Amino acid sequence: MKTINLRDLYPDVYKIDTYVEVSEEVLNAIQAAQRMEAAYDRRMYRHKAHYSLDYGNGIEKATVSHAPTPEDIFEAKQQQERLYAAVMTLPEKQAKRLYAHFYLGMTPVEIAHAEGVDPSSVRRSIRNGLKRLAKKFC
């Protein structure tokens, strides 16, 4: 058992020295937390990151991720359905190639190998299909 001074850990709460015996595990956890906090302070100093997320300059919106609202989920689903429908209105080869590339995650080389064609023609077909989709959505 080790003795620690709570005033060192919590100076706002303990105004006088208060000693407590703690186990080795608790002491190790406290020391690890202190080392992590010191490392964080060093990184903040070295990178001159002396700002707060409460500052109000919009930085918190870029760093804090928010859970999507039901409206966001619904709109994303509608957008995906419209996009899928638009892909299916393309010529059959372009639709298959776009579907394979973006939905199935295949590369143009893999698609070309599966179809037995040149990869440049697959790339060109995908590029032209994207241009057609852009015209439909703009």
Describe the structure.
- This protein has 138 residues and is mostly helical.
- The chain has 2 domains: 2-62, no CATH class; 70-137, Winged helix-like DNA-binding domain superfamily/Winged helix DNA-binding domain (Arc Repressor Mutant, subunit A), CATH 1.10.10.10.
- It has helices spanning 6-9, 24-46, 59-63, 70-88, 92-103, 108-115, 119-137; strands at residues 2-5, 19-22.
- A two-stranded antiparallel ribbon has the order 1-2.
- The protein is elongated, with a radius of gyration of 29 Å.
- GO terms for molecular function: DNA binding; sigma factor activity.
Output the keywords.
single chain, 138 residues, mainly alpha, Arc Repressor Mutant, subunit A, 2 domains, two-stranded antiparallel sheet, 7 helices, 2 strands, 65% helix, elongated, sigma factor activity, RNA_pol_sigma70_r4_t2, DNA binding
| Total domain count | 2
Q: Could you tell me the radius of gyration in angstroms?
A: 29 Å
The number of strands is 2
First and last CA, distance: 70 Å
Write down the overall mean pLDDT.
Answer: 86
In CATH, the architecture of the largest domain is Orthogonal Bundle
Kindly report the name of the CATH homologous superfamily of the largest domain: Winged helix-like DNA-binding domain superfamily/Winged helix DNA-binding domain
Number of helices: 7
